[in-house]
Amino acid sequence: MKAASNLETMEVAKGHDPALPAPTKESLRSDSSTQNDEFEIPTEEELVTLRRVSGQIPWTAYTVAFVELCERFSYYGTTAVCE
């Protein structure tokens, strides 16, 4: 019984397609102040289908990742000596 309900839940989850906001005319408008010659302006189809990503990763995230990496190295380094 539980396996059937999990299967139904998975089918419902697969069928769920989150709606993306439709681009407005103002978002498609290209101002000379916001347009950069280095990048291409996406088409309407690309605006709807492209994945949304955030800006740059803050340096604090790199710091946390580095500290965690050092912690893992120290843990495995000390366990190798004790064996």
Describe the structure.
The model has no long low-confidence stretch (mean pLDDT 75). The chain contains four helices and no strands. The chain is 58% helix and 0% strand. The protein has one domain (21-82).
Summarize the structure.
This protein has 83 residues and is mainly α.
Percentage of β-strand residues: under 5%
Low-pLDDT parts are none
The biggest sheet, with number of strands, parallel, antiparallel or mixed sense and barrel status, is: none
Q: Report how far apart the termini are.
A: 47 Å
- Tell me the number of helical segments per DSSP (H or I, 4 or more residues long): 4
What is the H/E order? Answer: HHHH
- How many domain units? 1
Class computed from helices, strands and strand pairing: mainly alpha
What's the mean pLDDT score?
Answer: 75
Q: Approximately how much helix is present in the residues?
A: 55-70%
How large, in whole angstroms, is the Cα Rg? 24 Å
What is the assembly state of the chains in this entry? Answer: single chain
Number of strands: 0
3D shape: flat
Secondary-structure map:
Elements: H1 2-15, H2 25-28, H3 44-49, H4 59-82
